[in-house]
Design a protein that fits this description.
Blueprint (H helix, E strand, L loop, with lengths): L20 H21 L8 E7 L5 H21 L7 E8 L5 H6 L8 E6 L12 E7 L32 H25 E13 L10 H18 L5 H5 L10 H8 L5 E10 L9 H21 L4 H16 L2 H6 L4 E9 L3
Parallel strand pairs: 1-2, 1-4, 2-3, 4-5
Antiparallel strand pairs: 5-7, 6-7
Helix pairs in contact: 1-2, 4-7, 5-9, 8-9
Amino acid sequence: MENCISMNGGEGPNSYSKNSKLQKEGLDKAKVFISESIAEILEIQKDLQVFTIADYGCSTGPNAFSSVETIIQAVQHKYKTHCPELKIPEFLVFFNDHVTNDFNTLFRTLPPGRQYVATGVPGSFHGSLFPKSSINLMDSAFSLHWLSQVPQEVTEEGSKMWNKGRISYPRSSNQIIEAFRAQFFSDMKAFIKERSEELSPGGLLVMLIPGRPDGTHPSECRSVHICECLSDTLADMVKEGLMSEDLADSFNLPFFFPSASEVKEVIRCNSHLNIERVDEVHYGVNPSSPGYIESCKMHLRAGLEGILCKHFGPNLIDDIFDRYPEKLEDFFKTQSSTYLGKTDKLLLLVLRNNAS
């Protein structure tokens, strides 16, 4: 599953580069949080010659570049205001994503005049990527809701947790929801373990995770319902004989939108990282705004086309997304969509390595 969770590459009309405005909105809202966290929490190392930054889940770059720029400006400001006698170190940035990521587009579109040396690191962030204590500041935005795999039991016919007729969990049983939650806990635990070893003493890990407010059920998140509308599209195509029922039933999306409490529960199991700051911001566009349905369709296509293409084949992709807007419009006409629109939250967390 990991090898196909990559956003659409290139710079064409269906690319992630052209269809990641929602992520950009969230990052813009988080800039002050990130800058303040660096100013207040980051420990300055006096003899540091090179300040290393790792971005986990960079995709093709536009939003990752913005995050890196925010981080570097904040670090430079901290040196100037807290340690003006020290020379500001050079910056080395590692851009990480899956091996199938379009790193060519990322490097071709690197910002001119950037203040850092850039390199790519392909591989899953659920595993080890860097030497121990080698990274000064880690950043992951809009990536950690992706799972390393779909829980196996939800795709097995005959299983008590078989997710027949659905591609995710908002309209499924509590048993199925718990399977997705358990997979998230397992993956998040692996991510935190590896980052705690790679983070330098006094370094920071900044995480921006799309999720939902504390006290809400996992099904109470508009983002996952928007994705689930695709299952209604697939059901119509099965009825019309365009794909087999077995093919549709065997497909599930590997993600889970957590609450802040769920994320903190995982982190507290790791003794090497301290939770320093936590915040939540609402993000998302009003469905009544002009062009929202089309924008939502393009956003989903940029993120899910690779997974859909691998499972259903390339010939059905245009048909799937041509049909999808009608299902999305039906969802936004429901009473629940108004409430769910208030539940999309961007979870902001800053962790520090407690070894000094």
